[in-house]
Amino acid sequence: MEAPRSTRDRARRLRRRLDLPEVLLWDALRGRRLEGLRFRRQHPIGPYCLDFYCEAARLAVEVDGYSHDVGDRPERDLRRDAWVAEQGVRTLRIPARDVLDDLDTVLTAILASAREPF
Fold this sequence. Notes:
The protein is α+β, with helices and mostly antiparallel strands. It has helices at residues 5-15, 20-29, 73-86, 96-101, 103-115; strands at 40-45, 48-54, 59-64, 90-95.
C-alpha cells in the first residue's frame, strides 16, 4: 500500500530517532538475522509508520513504551491495529521493557508470529 508523502517523510525522520529498545530489536532483525526474514524499520503504510515490518509474513512489530498505556493511546492503538489488519497485516505489540529484559524471548515470539497463518 502506498503511503502519503507526509507519512514517508515522517518515517525517514523516525528512522534517525530510534529509542534504545528499538535499536536493540533492529540490531537483532536487520540483515535477515532472524531466520532469513527481511524486516524494515519505520515502514510507512497509509497514514501510519510501523516500527518494524516483514512483508513476507505480513507482520508488523510494534515496540510499546509506557506512553502506550496512558490517556487515549490504548484506543488509538486499537484503531490503528484494526486499520492495519484491514490491509492484511497482523500486528504484534511488544512492551519495550520485554525487549530490554529478554530479547531472546521477544525474538522467539516474533518468529512464531511470522510463521503462523493470518
